[in-house]
Write a structure and sequence with these properties.
By secondary structure, the chain is an alpha+beta fold. Helix content is 47%, strand content 24%. It has 5 helices and 6 strands, in the order ββααβββαβαα. It has a 4-stranded mixed β-sheet with strand order 3-4-5-6, with helices on both faces. The longest helix is centred in the N-terminal third of the chain and has 16 residues, at 13-28. It is globular. 22% of the residues are buried.
């Protein structure tokens, strides 16, 4: 849920239950990159609390810092396919319309350059 003018936004009741089940499954079976990043950002290691596989509107975001309105998405290879890129762009626009900032990293970036990824996250958190 995201605070927007004092109101929390979440999925419509008919979709929430389905999204909650997807989020639960996503938490059980994260990618290696998601697991790695979560180890670094959990438990307020960046001084801010993050949630993972969190429902925002009609979406499930990989990670979110509600206090700062920062969404972090970790993208696998299929996100480079044209149709998925279009869906991701639309999703980002909707999330930004809710007042959130969305940053994206590829699985490879997280796995091969975790310090660079964390530096980018810190920059957004302290902006």
């Amino acid at each position: 849920m995201v605070r927007n003018n004092g109101i929390y936004n979440t999925a419509s009741p008919d979709r929430y239950k389905l999204l909650r089940e997807f989020a639960k499954k996503n938490k059980q079976y994260p990618t290696e990159a998601e697991k790695m990043l979560w180890e670094y950002i959990r438990s307020e290691q960046l001084w801010f609390k993050f949630n993972r596989q969190h429902i925002v509107g009609d979406y499930i975001v990989d990670f979110i810092c509600l206090e700062k309105g920062l969404v972090i998405e970790v993208d696998g290879g299929y996100h480079s396919e044209y149709e998925q890129m279009q869906r991701d762009e639309c999703r980002t626009e909707h999330l930004e319309d809710m007042g959130l900032k969305v940053i994206r990293f590829s699985n490879e970036e997280v796995l091969n350059n975790i310090e660079g990824v964390l530096d980018n996250i810190r920059k957004e958190l302290y902006r």
